[in-house]
Amino acid sequence: MTFFTGDSGRLWLADTDSQSFEKCANVQSWGINWSQTMIQRDALGYTDRVITPGIRQLSGTARILYYRDPPNNNGGDGISLPNEGVSWLMQKIIKVDSDAYDGTFPPTDAGGDPRERQSARLGFKLGLTGGGTNRFLSFYGYINSFTMNCNVGEVVAADVSFEADGAPFKNTF
Description:
The structure is a single chain. This protein is mainly beta. It has a domain at about 15-35 and about 55-70 and about 80-95 and about 110-173. It contains one helix and eight strands, in the order ββββαββββ. A hairpin with a 6-residue loop joins β1 (about 10-15) and β2 (about 20-25). It starts with 8 loop residues before the first strand and ends with a strand.
């Protein structure tokens, strides 16, 4: 029998078009929450509540420490997993539009196609490794909250909340 501890935890991320998950380094913690609504179907004269399972929801959180690799020798400063998870996520969810502000106040041009600035659907794989086994839950979803804090005496970190889009496609827990 194998017990797992926090240092066994792992988080892998993927673009939905790549289908290739990469480990996200510097993850301090993650958590998942599964819930299901219940649809009440009792009627007049019933003495007990009668329910039917309804919509399921999978959501979670992760805390990822901010880290950036130094620019490579050819001057490139591209962002990549595994080490740069916070920057990688920020590029996927925070979309910029250089045409959005035309120098006047209030701005007169909202600029661009809003569909081009939607947050990306991502692949998530949360799991545990150890004892010769890998246990994980894989699903696609969206980041619905991103908070990055900088405090004296602490490593800069991002707290990320996410929500699954549909049912998980793999569960080996």
